[in-house]
Amino acid sequence: MRDPTLCVTPGDGATAPFESLAVPVQRASTIVFPTVAAYQGRREAIYDGYSYGLYGTPTSRELETRLARLEGAERTLALPSGFSAIALTTLAAAAPGQEVLFPDTIYDTVRPFADRFLAGLGIGSRYYDPMLGAALAGELADETALVWVESPGSMTMEVQDVPAIATAAHARGAKVAADNTWATSLRFKPLAHGVDFSVCALSKYVAGHSDVMMGSVSVADVDLYRRLKDHSRFLGLGVSADEASLVLRGLETLAVRMDRAAASAERLAAWAAGQPGVAEVRFPAIASNPGHAVFKRDFSGGAGLFSVFLEDWTRPVLAEAIESLKLFPIGASWGGTRSLVAVLDGPPLRTVAPLSHRGPVVRFSIGLEDPEDLQADLAAAFARLAAARPRTAERRA
User: Fold this and answer.
1) Chain segment 275-311, per-residue pLDDT in tens
2) Among 252, 276, 296, which residue terminates a domain?
């Protein structure tokens, strides 16, 4: 063979055996087949074999296999983001003329997706009080195809009675999907509690290093998996081997990171409840949190995310206090090694079950820093709030 051919022709490879603890990164766009018959049957291979790089590689399949094992699922599908997993699940479960029910606490990006995108497809959407439990039966209609749960809820941490909701939905022929990103499958297993689709934003705790975008959907029904896989193909959704390998690496330390973050968060949430300007702390492991009894019943432990409801007088000095933090960068995500803080000027939008609270809401994601250092940093910020406290607020206290 001449040099140009040698440049692109595979070599014989090493003959000595080789095995690594790391999952190999096997990138591909084109996948080649040994026979014409195998090539002509490649469409069927998208489900559990290999057809084209977009539809799966050995690296992404290994990630899906490990996730399915943790979820107690028959199959898991990896997708480019947590939100793509939410969107794909909704589109696979609901058709024009049907409707989807979302808890009032749903991740805020879902609302414009439902109101502007789903509506354009002829799919209706309604919101329900997340604390209804079995009483959700009264909200269901013949056209209800899918009920979403997000437990705990975005920002405000309400814990839903997922088994009761699933029972009510299934009695009317509706499927149930759960956004399980807060807990991951280590703390709560939606499929074991009656859910049909278990969704997780792998970008957060599972990947764990704030450098990957990925999501997953896990199901106990292979037919549902094939439907999801078909929809992902129609929409051109897939994940790269490189990103799958990063999530696989994060998965190996997930248990120890979750334990550390949860222990630190429980300590800091309890401490924060006594600080100046704090009206309420929302953290499922705290007895006063909405749905705490369900949390104790259904979850195997906590996570590193909690929210602080602040009194209204803190609003003028809140930005200064937050920006003074040394160990809490301002950001919207959670679940990485670094602690983060997210700030809302007031409670998130609720259209069915409004909150009585009117002051700012601050959400903390606790990372792997020493909790003593985190508490000292927070104490300095709360001291700034206290120094600006109006005398009228002092008299009310």
Assistant:
1) 999 999 999 999 999 999 999 999 999 999 999 999 9
2) 252
Give the model's pLDDT for residue 396: 54
Residue 227 resides in a domain = yes
Q: For the chain, how many structural domains are there in total?
A: 2
Residue by residue, what is the 3-state secondary structure of the chain?
A: CCHHHHHHCCCCCCCCCCCCCCCCCCCCCCCCCCCHHHHHCCCHHHCCCCCCHHHCCHHHHHHHHHHHHHHCCCEEEEECCHHHHHHHHHHHHCCCCCEEEEECCCCCCHHHHHHHHHHHCCCEEEEECCCCHHHHHHHCCCCEEEEEEECCCCCCCCCCCHHHHHHHHHHCCCEEEEECCCCHHHHCCHHHHCCCEEEEECCCCCCCCCCCCCEEEEECCHHHHHHHHHHHHHCCCCCCHHHHHHHHHHHHCHHHHHHHHHHHHHHHHHHHCCCCCEEEEECCCCCCCCCHHHHHHHCCCCCCEEEEEECHHHHHHHHHHHHCCCCCCECCCCCCCCCEEEEECCCCCCCCCCCCCCCCEEEEECCCCCHHHHHHHHHHHHHHHHHCCCHHHHHHC
- Determine, yes or no, domain membership for 345: yes
Structural domain of 235? 36-252
pLDDT in tens, 142-174: 999 999 999 999 899 999 999 999 999 999 999
Kindly state whether residues 243 and 262 are assigned to the same domain: no
Total-model pTM: 0.95
Residue 248 in domain:
yes
- The pLDDT value recorded for residue 147 is 98
Residue 221 domain-assigned? yes
